[in-house]
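Running log. JK asked me to keep both predictions on one page so they can be read side by side. First protein, sequence followed by its tokens:
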Amino acid sequence: MKKLAIEVFRRKEQKYLITAEQYFLLVEQILPYMRPDRYGDNGRYTVTSLYFDSNDHKIYFETKNKLKFRQKLRLRIYDDTDLNGTAFFEVKQKHKKVVNKRRMLLPLKEAYRYLYENQENGLNSYETSNPQVFREIDYFLHLYELRPEMVVSYDRHALHCIEDPDLRITFDLNLRCRNEDLFVEHGSGGANFIDPNLVVLEVKVNDSVPLWLTRILQTLHCEQKSASKYCTSMELLNGEKLPNGIEKELVFAGGR
């Protein structure tokens, strides 16, 4: 599946952790206002991302400590993609609730060539959609001494508002992670890091959430809750390597 190549954008995000029952009721009530994402099967597709961190987990602690400015680096594919397929290499920056994302497209094999082979020929030798973003990614990767850390995957149901194209709602289900076999083309397998009966809801807007949606969320008792996929995965996969006393994120599979 090919995704639209929006390479630089800014938006606000509100995150919720809801039950599967709330998810079905919410979809039913918002459908008059929304349409499925044009990609995937009726707005449904699988997201698989390779996340990066340093040996001392700088990225994890920036997010965990909720720094006013924090950022992540990830390499993302959609559905099943082979080495010749399109990958998205992106820096996600967050300042308070405002998200800035800068990304470029490149063949997955080119991303691996950059990550794992000698770069003596320089960045201009790679096939990318945006050389400027590539330079920013390269600077960030070397500044933080980042390396591949884990693969995070989930099944996404994405909707867009019919009247307001800037309003997007996504539901992420069956969230899983692994820190072995860090090749995204090998599939989306992994251990569930959030209870399978829970769904991560994200409301993405340029300005403010419309009143009709706010009322529906209130009626269904959907409460905002920070939901860091990366931190929760890190604590499941590498908990023994983290300092004692860290308050765990969200809920893991198997209970609250």
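And the second, directly underneath as requested:
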Amino acid sequence: MGSRAFGLATRSSDTDRRGVYVAPTPLFWRLDKPPAHVDGPAPEQFSWELERLCELALRANPTVLECLHSPLVERADEVGRELLALRGAFLSRHAHRTFAKYAEGQYRRLAAHRRERGEVRWKQAMHLVRLLLSCRDLLRTGELSVDAGAHRERLLAVRRGEVPWDEVAAWIARLHEETEAAAARTPLPAEPDRARVEDFLVRVRRAYV
């Protein structure tokens, strides 16, 4: 994930990895349940238990949806490959609300920091623009692409602080307007395909008894 998946990596970029694991089904029969997520063991590594990931993705969590659509997959077993093939079932118009809400929160924090400290967190500004580009295009096409390579040079210029804040703010405002327009005629379904996801999860649970 991160800049490498987004097509925005530089020589100094970290390698952020996200994973999904399946806890053995009998562990859920106990009072103490298996962990819903695990940090590590490597730096910049985080994993979700399959059911937790499905819950978040069905709610259109931006981080999880982008993880499922990363163009860089280092390892996937049979269950992982089926999960990746299922990723379209998680997409719905709820993404408009969740992506926009996340972007609004990021913008408020950016603006507050600039107002209080007199400086701009340019890396955060770059990723905010990237998120809005991803959301707009998802609503326009019904497909989620996290690779922002087409906008790489301009986005990296934002990260380096080479684009004036007023210009960045105008870009954000324009993307917000374009996102709202796309939401009005998006091909995305109103709801995700919960039944298809649940069928997958139940089959995995049975296989891991």
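Observation for JK regarding the second prediction: The chain has nine helices and three strands.
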